[in-house]
Design a protein that fits this description.
Helices cover 33% and strands 19% of the residues. The protein has 534 residues and is of the alpha/beta class. The protein has three domains: 295 residues, Metallo-beta-lactamase, Chain A (4-Layer Sandwich); 180 residues, Rossmann fold (3-Layer(aba) Sandwich); 46 residues, no CATH class. The strands form four sheets. Strands 6-5-4-3-2-1-22-23 form an eight-stranded mixed beta sheet. A seven-stranded mixed beta sheet has the order 7-8-9-10-11-20-21, with helices on one face. Strands 14-13-15-12-16-19 form a six-stranded parallel beta sheet. The longest helix is centred in the first third of the chain and has 32 residues. The protein starts with a strand and ends with a helix.
């Protein structure tokens, strides 16, 4: 019985872990690598056709975004997730596929002019649509048999509608081990969804550590503080630009906006216009008002039962086409624009930033985690100018980090969650899904609480019967950044990516015949010597 780590190992995105038991391979998440975490989204560090089952903790792309590619490359097994995660996957993977196709089309137009080779998208809309064929859905608390000797139960993670903590009971050769995969644990007292479920005990825990080194800023009232930001920006004639994840965070913002409007908290214009500039967010919002029995918190359920539309209010408009989106920047009326992507690395938000970052009267409000190497992180770190669509844009707008609004548990709440494991107490805790500086730090914190813990590295393999590292992993080189937070040359990035592919290939070569390994090593040495002597 083994556990391998194939993503979000001392980084925040690309979650992917593989449990091997009774000759079967069960994948927990298969996420897209983003920003500085990206190693090589084009290839997987395992054979897709060898995977028997995939469990998806939730629909965010850094946990599900490579599932269509997994199928495209030969996966023939079963995908298990909650009912609402399955509904959200339909729209999120289609949106991701559209981005993959658009990016490939843009790169190929450039390649045509330069003579560079053409690229293929990671997957297409057709590939994304095939995911439904493999899906089996369940509800919270339901026991799902995965294969002989292995069952899974999904519990509410409180992070996103349908998000789950997954408990796996696995028996091999008469030995049973219980593994708990936290997925992304939610913040407490969020609107709409419930707090994360406490789990009593396990033999092994794989837990996230996104905010393992810090707590969220205490917010007395989300609505009051957000209203204050909107009020002062609109009063000075600016726009409030909110980069937001289309699923989950946008619906929370709509919930707060409705409360702000009901209480008339924005004095400069009580009926200020709010634009949701994301077709994906529009589709997701329809799911958030569907059959939500067993998923909503008590306050949200009371609203639904009273007939209140949680996300509707006067002067709310949802744009559909790119033409409608562009018109927003030609209209001088002060407004709130909520647009994807949440880290500003793709989508319509980049156009709104281009038209508002240089305006001192506007405000850009960040309401979620900004990964290393992303445009959002650069702005939060104080970049004086950024490049958008080939143009250097000065950053004069007010930049606000709305830290209290987070869908992730902070340090204290992560500690409280793992402290709840007492019967049985885990043999070992694997700390994942945290930046390179954060995951090992939080692992030390967990050890200080009386557990045995460590932060695995990429491709590490752990023996769950003998309770020891079987194969040591490695830390891929992170993408370099320029002093302003922008990326260095694409050629250097490509070289780094190829180097990481080479390292992954070397790791997979373990066990091959000595003659082939020696020949490969000699070829690599000759190539390196030639390069160094140029």
């Amino acid at each position: 019985m083994k556990l391998s780590f194939f993503g979000a190992d001392q980084c925040v995105t690309g979650s992917c872990h593989c449990l091997e038991v009774n000759g079967k391979k069960i994948l927990v998440d298969c996420g897209l690598q983003q920003g500085r975490d990206e190693i090589d989204n084009q290839s997987l560090p395992f054979a897709p056709n060898a995977i028997d089952c995939v469990l998806i903790t939730h629909a965010h792309i850094d946990h599900s975004g490579r599932v269509p590619m997994l199928i495209k490359q030969g996966f023939q097994g079963r995908i298990v997730t909650t009912r609402l995660t399955a509904d959200l996957l339909d729209i999120m993977l289609a949106d991701s596929a559209h981005i993959q196709e658009s990016d490939a089309e843009w790169k190929n137009r450039k390649a045509e002019r330069s003579g560079a080779p053409k690229v293929e998208p990671l997957y297409t809309l057709e590939d994304a649509a095939r995911v439904r064929e493999f899906l089996t859905t369940c509800e919270y608390g339901e026991t799902v048999e995965l294969c002989e000797g292995v069952t899974a139960v999904f519990s509410d993670a409180g992070h996103l509608l349908g998000s789950a903590i997954i408990t796996v009971d696995a028996t091999e050769n008469g030995v049973t081990k219980r593994l708990v995969f936290s997925g992304d644990l939610g913040n407490i007292k969020q609107p709409i969804i419930r707090d994360p479920s406490p789990i009593a005990g396990a033999d092994y825990v794989v837990m996230e550590s996104t905010y393992g080194d810090r707590n969220h800023t205490e917010i007395w009232s989300y609505t009051d503080e957000l209203a204050e930001i909107i009020d002062k920006t609109i009063a000075r004639g600016g726009n409030v630009i909110i980069p937001s994840f289309a699923v989950g965070r946008t619906q929370e913002l709509l919930y707060f906006m409705r409360e702000i409007k009901d209480a008339k908290l924005v004095k400069s214009n009580p009926d200020f216009p709010v634009y949701i500039d994301s077709p994906l967010a529009k589709k997701a919002t329809t799911i958030f008002v569907g059959d939500l029995r067993g998923y909503l918190d008590e306050e949200a359920m009371e609203l639904v039962q009273d007939g209140t539309h949680m996300f509707n209010f006067t002067n709310l408009r949802m744009t559909e086409t790119s033409e409608e989106s562009k018109l927003l920047n030609l209209d001088n009326t002060p407004k709130v624009i909520i647009s994807a992507s949440g880290m500003c690395d793709a989508g319509r938000i980049r156009h709104h930033l281009k038209h508002n970052l240089w305006r001192a009267e506007s405000t850009v409000v960040f309401v979620g985690f900004q990964g290393e190497g992303t445009l959002g992180r650069s702005l939060l770190e104080g970049a004086k100018s950024v490049k958008l669509f080939g143009e250097q844009i000065a950053v004069n707008a007010e930049i606000v980090n709305f830290r209290g609004l987070s869908s992730h548990a902070d340090r204290d709440h992560l500690m409280a969650w793992i402290e709840g494991f007492k019967a049985p107490k885990p043999q070992h805790v694997f700390v994942v899904h945290g930046d390179r500086e954060v995951a090992p730090f939080f692992a030390k914190t967990v050890e200080g609480m009386g557990f045995t813990a460590h932060a695995p590295q990429y491709t590490e393999v752990y023996d769950l019967i003998e309770d020891r590292v079987l194969e040591v992993g490695y830390l891929p080189e992170r993408k370099a950044k320029s002093p302003t937070g922008g990326r260095v040359s694409s050629a250097y990035e490509r070289l780094v990516a190829v180097g990481e592919m080479l390292m992954a290939s070397i790791k997979r070569s373990k066990g091959r015949d000595n003659k082939s390994l020696a020949r490969f090593a000699d070829q690599l040495r000759a190539l390196l010597e030639k390069w160094e002597n140029q």
